[in-house]
Amino acid sequence: MVVPLVFFAMFFAYPVAAIVGRGLRPGAGWQFGRIRDVLGQPDILDVLWFTTWQALASTALTLLVALPGAYVFARFDFPGKQVLRALVTVPFVLPTVVVGTAFLSLLGRGGLLDELWGVRLDTTVWAILLAHVFFNYAVVVRTVGGLWSQLDPRQEEAARMLGASRLTAWRKVTLPALGPAVAAASLMVFLFTFTSFGIVQILGGPAFSTLEVEIYRQTAQLLDLPTAAVLTLVQFVAVGSILAVHAWTVRRRESALRLVDAAQTARRPRGVGQWALLSTVLATIAVLLVLPLAVLVRRSLDGPDGFGFAYFRALTSADGGAFLVAPIESIGNSLRYAAAATAIALVIGALAAAALSRPGGHSRSRPSAVDRLVRGFDALLMLPLGVSAVTVGFGFLISLDHPPLDLRASWILVPLAQALVGVPFVVRTMLPVLRAVDGRLREAAAVLGASPLRAWREVDLPMVRRSLLVAAGFAFAVSLGEFGATVFIARPDNPTLPVAVSRLLGRAGDLNYGQAMALSTVLMVVCAASLLLLERARPRTDGVSGAVDRAGEF
Amino acid sequence: MGTNNQITATALITGIGLIGLVACGTDSGTGENSDGGSKKTVTLVTHDSFAASKSVLNSFEKQTGYKVRVLKNGDAGQAVNQAVLSKGNPQGDVFFGVDNTLLSRALDNGIFAPYRAKGLSDVRDDVQLDKGKNRVTPVDTGDICVNYDKKYFADKKLAPPASLADLAKPQYKNLLVTENAATSSPGLGFLLASTAQYGDSGWQGYWRKLKDNGVKVVDGWEQAYNEEFSGSAGGKKAGGDRPLVVSYASSPPVEVLYADPKPKQAPTGVASGTCFRQIEFAGLLDGAANEKGGKALIDFLVGKEFQQDMPLKMFVNPVTEGVQVPELYRKYDGTAKNPKTVPPKKIADNREAWVKSWTSLVVK
């Protein structure tokens, strides 16, 4: 627990505190009066109001669209299910710079809606809401669907045998069991949409601004650090509350449910109703998730001499001008950064998960002070997901600027920042598995004369190996797509994929635009591939399958 | 408990490993600079748009023995702000990329140490905004101008607009897209052009007319140019339907340069009376670890070799006398004839108020 704590103190708490402190304490004394000043401005109140209601609306819409999907993925068996499950997760790890433009072409002029009904949604709040559904669909499908697939259908059947109607049985049996998972998923979607940045900027236009956008504007553009500091604190409090509620629902979810192997609960759909549901869900996925991605691929192939790989070939030449090196090398950069970030996230995350899962750590009967501390730590690890990237980036700049920790210009800063985002996913993936490992097995091994190392190797490792792989895959994909923190950190000129895409988009000319689309496609394929591998790592029959199957939950 | 010991041991080992990793990062990161002994590297802190030919950077290395390390810090505004925040303990030796719209912020915060570049006497006089004090050295100019889609205006048999006043005329209704002046530098440049033309009392009236004439505002250049503008390569693919966009005078040459096969005519043109001139500066960072190397680098930035390389790398204009702009620029108006300018002091004094009032006037 010491290592993750030190890591978070050094690379998260300290930099964030430093930049907030700089804002609130410009001279000798603290200026807490600023808080009232800033919060009294009508503009800021507008931003707060918009941030909150769009997040609420986005969450509601995401649930509405994704819950049928969660059911279908949990209960039905159909060809291509695994590929599809990986595919719907791709948007979640793609950077908004890449997808925003593709999404725009669907909702904007000449887009699908425009052609069908003459409806244009760009620069309306609808574009923001739909894009939020696109990005967070997987959160609901994975969190709720993961649990749903392990609920024993026989319980509902038993209720019906006892005379309950189908609806009553569902309401009395399945719904209460799913409730906490739905709540946890909602809170995660709320957290991600509350702190939405790129989507609001690209799709909403200048008329819409979330707290996160405003913090960016005040910090990176206006250098109004006091205002930015106050807004950061406000976001901090909001995110902290969301996470506190989330931690509470997660604990409730871990209450005794009778879980079964997911493989036993899914079957081929039967009857018109079920087939109709499956088709509706598949159609929704096709229109809402696959279409924007397809637009991207189409544009990357739509070269000057008709369809072909001209833009992809151009990626290998260094004379494009936007970089010293061929754009294709950004793939290598991204892979290296992501590998380093994954290694850091795995070490920190696994240690944190190990500390959190220690025996007694989650006894529900009489939580001790230590238990409460551990739970607080659990929530703390999630905090980087909700703190603005510009705050962390600028915090790095003013806090890690003295030897031996003068890292401001070092390459390691990028994977460190990416690992901050990856750790929560590692912890969430590993924790259920570690908790499921029966402590008596270790004791038995010890009694039989195994050394602690041997006991760990023979007992723990085989059980956590798969979840470790899953965690690594997810941390890797998240790091690949990470754009926010990376762009706020000074980098020697070896851009990551998302940074390279945004740089190509920042220049005029057919070839630059085409290469941006081609690179985006590459990024998408790499993300999809690592997520597909992750799907393969999902266990089927071993003892802790129930716990590992919830991997990828947030 | 065996496992707890196990965890502690693992933690210890990984902790040490991590510190080792971080230490490696520091070493390879700051290179030989941190030794204090041989200062063979000079670090250039800049924005993401910085670009130079490898051969040109190699030539600097050969001439001076210093290796250039380029450190990119996001967009121009962000890069300047980061330089201000790390004042006195800079990330590198030279900062390049502060323009006339942000110059006062950098100078008022005192992030630069004075240095008169060798060859400054060859730099054009009209861009020397810090004359005498030499805290910053002008390196390039760029012009923010309204671009038009040639095909659209030819098809409609309509003359493209030539001036700011034209943009408010009924025949150009609903044709223009511009960027948010609060977050985008071309957006701000266009606002400044209007203040230069119409003065402190008149520019708001002009924007009211523009708004009534259907000007569309999007957040950044990428959206405006690649999505909304009908004349750009990206805009054509995205189905952009606005034939007028706020971009750069160098955008038409860039459209030609990055087209394959190269068209005889640029697909876009520049509305010559709508331009605002940006001047970009470099300066020696106060507290630079390699001051000597930094000075050599600034000399190099205004030298002929770098100046000649710039136009087709960063799509900006040279400032050193005797350096020719490439043929591409002469052919497709890469440089504005009579751009509008606003003194940096005036920009500094009014920027926030102008942007604020522009926002409530146009965006809200």
Automatic annotation (TrEMBL), chain A:
UniProt xrefs under Pfam families: BPD_transp_1 (PF00528)
Subcellular location: Cell inner membrane; Cell membrane
Gene Ontology annotations for the cellular component aspect, listed alphabetically: plasma membrane
Membrane-traversing stretches: 53-74, 86-106, 126-145, 181-208, 228-248, 275-297, 337-356, 377-398, 410-431, 467-491, 511-534
GO BP term, example: transmembrane transport
Superkingdom, taxonomy of origin: Bacteria
Keyword Membrane: yes
Membrane-topology descriptor: Multi-pass membrane protein
Keywords of this entry: Cell inner membrane, Cell membrane, Membrane, Transmembrane, Transmembrane helix, Transport
Listed Gene3D superfamilies: MetI-like
InterPro entries in the record: MetI-like, MetI-like_sf
Domain ABC transmembrane type-1: from-to ranges: 48-244, 331-534
Family statement: Belongs to the binding-protein-dependent transport system permease family.
Name of the protein described by the UniProt record: Iron ABC transporter permease
Organism: Streptomyces tsukubensis
Automatic annotation (TrEMBL), chain B:
This protein's UniProt keywords: Signal
Any one cellular-component term (Gene Ontology): outer membrane-bounded periplasmic space
InterPro entries: ThiB-like
GO BP field: thiamine transport
Family annotation (SUPFAM superfamilies): Periplasmic binding protein-like II
Sample GO molecular function, one term: thiamine binding
Pfam family, one: SBP_bac_6
PANTHER family xrefs: ABC TRANSPORTER SUBSTRATE-BINDING PROTEIN (PTHR30006:SF2), THIAMINE-BINDING PERIPLASMIC PROTEIN-RELATED (PTHR30006)
NCBIfam families registered for this protein in UniProt: sfuA (TIGR01254)
Protein name: Thiamine ABC transporter substrate-binding protein
Organism: Streptomyces tsukubensis
Lineage: Bacteria, Bacillati, Actinomycetota, Actinomycetes, Kitasatosporales
